[in-house]
Amino acid sequence: MQNTDIGDQNEAIKKNLGEINKVVMVISGKGGVGKSTVASNLALALAEKGKKIGLLDIDIHGPNLPKMLGVDKERLQSPGENRIEPVRISENLKLVSMAFLLPEENQAVIWRGPLKMKVIRQFLKDINWGKLDWLIVDSPPGTGDEPLSMAQLVPASSAIIVTTPQEISILDVKKSIDFARKLNLELLGIVENMSGLICPYCGKEIPLFKIGGGEKLAKKMGIPFLGAIPIDPEIVKAADQGILYVENFPDSSATKALKKIADKINNK
Amino acid sequence: MQNTDIGDQNEAIKKNLGEINKVVMVISGKGGVGKSTVASNLALALAEKGKKIGLLDIDIHGPNLPKMLGVDKERLQSPGENRIEPVRISENLKLVSMAFLLPEENQAVIWRGPLKMKVIRQFLKDINWGKLDWLIVDSPPGTGDEPLSMAQLVPASSAIIVTTPQEISILDVKKSIDFARKLNLELLGIVENMSGLICPYCGKEIPLFKIGGGEKLAKKMGIPFLGAIPIDPEIVKAADQGILYVENFPDSSATKALKKIADKINNK
User: Fold this and answer.
1) CA distances (Å), origin B146, targets A28, A183, B189
2) Least CA distance to B173: which residue of chain A?
3) Contacts of residue B239 in chain A, CB cutoff 8 Å?
4) In sequence order, what DSSP letters do the residues of B133-188 get, joined into one string?
5) A166 contacts B236? CB cut-off 8 A
6) B144 vs A111: CB contact, 8 Å cut-off?
7) Per residue in A163-186, pLDDT tens?
8) Over the stretch A220-250, which tens digit does the pLDDT of each residue have?
9) In the structure, what pLDDT confidence band is assigned to residue A4 with cuts at 50, 70 and 90?
10) ipTM of the complex
């Protein structure tokens, strides 16, 4: 690919994302902190409030959002040349994921960095998002090719960092903060996920991954703290079964926490 | 770098790893399934049995093993030209991690794929492992640059796949199996981690991430099942404090499970 082509493509990306009010990347230092759960449920909570939301899953090796949102049998449609239509989850929520492009779900995507950059570029250039209040981007963990490509291709992005409270996770969050700052991403704040578990039998709180580490870190690093979400075994089940958690468990503590965080983001 | 150089380097890697009996990569489809916990505690369990063990942390973006093993203030020593000495954890256990090369622990490594390949190549070529029964490699999650580089540079490797029991994780494990098969890695088996949690207050078992998903998958895919490890909040605390779990909690259910798995691997 020639450099001039890349210049043209970057122009095309800018034009294609022109009707999107704000892009936010949901990132984490460590894997398995519930980044996809937080990204998808914040998207649901914002869509419920009447906001137009796009959800882009750039986790190329483990794209789980379609399964979590119950649309893993769908495929992307391409009605016109170079135009790809997102999959619709609800009136206000559209989704695009690498999973929709894979021939079968058990297949590993054994790609090195440059090819990942190319597919993310295409996602940004050719998808017909239309008018959006928020484009929420679910990145793979770490500070590698995918979030780096995204931050470079969409320079005005912002970021939410998800962490669990224990120190091993906090160590990696500091790296995410460093990453966001180096790439000039606006840091909307930190979400502490898996913050305590209520035993379903005796009702006592088990500090499984400790509690409060994310909040403490936010204060120390001078970054807004967006809120703490407790562990709810029902979130795990909902994700496995493709049930929209926020919509189906409106009274749970985790839903209430997620909605408060959505409000804070919406007011940014 | 010229192709002939790379040929020479591959020869040098082969020579340098010549005294290692077996290389095993600990991989996972999803992040946060406890891969580093399993890798480090299996290393401890095998070292306790008198085996000579090397532990190599190729998670370049989130290298956590030094902190988990209480040696995060150590640095690699290079006494001679092109020779790097691993950090010694105990008589039979040596560690090398990307973390030892970082100037300060909060810094993000914002590297694309080709640079990662280069550093992994150097790790394999220049580290003075000496005679080992097992070199255990802790990879970042997914099927990206790091595990791919490793599998290509050390063609006779084997692999252990770590998963949690819930379906979202199992979906990603199938990708890891596909990856291992495509790269001709010998699959030693599947470990089911975070398999149930005993409430520390009422003693009842909470199926937080469900139970049995890893075992079921192993059977279905014709792969050995190595064992299930329950969640123990003490493992989280030990990792945060750099306490060697298997050595310090010899009677816990998780240690017993880990030791059984180590025995199975040792008999392979």
Assistant:
1) 18, 23, 20
2) A106
3) 166, 168
4) EEEEEEPPSSSSHHHHHHHHHSTT-EEEEEE-SSHHHHHHHHHHHHHHHHTT-EEE
5) yes
6) yes
7) 999 988 888 899 999 999 999 999
8) 999 999 999 999 989 999 999 999 999 999 9
9) low
10) 0.79
Cβ contacts (< 8 Å) between A233 and chain B: which residues?
206-208
Quote the DSSP letter at residue A140: P
More confident residue, A96 or A61: A96
Q: Which residue in this structure is represented by tokens 């999973």?
A: A99
d(CA B163, CA B8): 37
Alpha-carbon distance B225 to B227, whole Å?
6
Contact B238, B245 (CB under 8 A): yes
A146 token code pair: 């995918």
Q: How far is CA B12 from CA A227, B8, B153, in A?
A: 51, 6, 11
Instruction: Give the residue ranges of DSSP H helices in A65-182.
Output: 65-68, 113-126, 145-153, 167-182
Integer Cα distance of B183 and B180 in angstroms? 5
Does A175 sit within 8 Å of B197, measured CB to CB?
no
Contacts of B196 (CB under 8 A, 6+ apart): B205, B206, B207, B208, B211, B228, B230, B231
| pLDDT mean for each 10 residues of chain B (268 residues) | 72 92 93 93 97 94 90 85 88 93 76 83 91 94 85 89 92 90 94 92 90 94 96 92 96 96 93
pTM of the model: 0.87
Q: How buried is residue B2: exposed, middle or buried, by Cβ count under 10 Å (0-12/13-18/19+)?
A: exposed
- Among residues A228, A251, A258, A110, the alpha carbon closest in space to that of B146 is found at A110
The residue with tokens 């075994």 is A233
Using the beta-carbon criterion (under 8 Å), do A145 and B179 form an inter-chain contact?
no
Tokens describing residue B63: 């290298």
Q: Using CB atoms, which residue from B60, B175, B236 is nearest to A106?
A: B175
Q: Hey, is A176 helix, strand or coil? A: helix
Are A113 and B112 a contacting pair at CB < 8 A?
yes
Check: CB of residue B32 under 8 Å from CB of residue B39.
no
Tell me the HSE value of A126 on the side-chain side, using a 13 A CA sphere.
Answer: 15
Measured between alpha carbons, how far is A128 from B235 in angstroms, rounded to an integer? 46
Residue corresponding to tokens 């190599």: B56
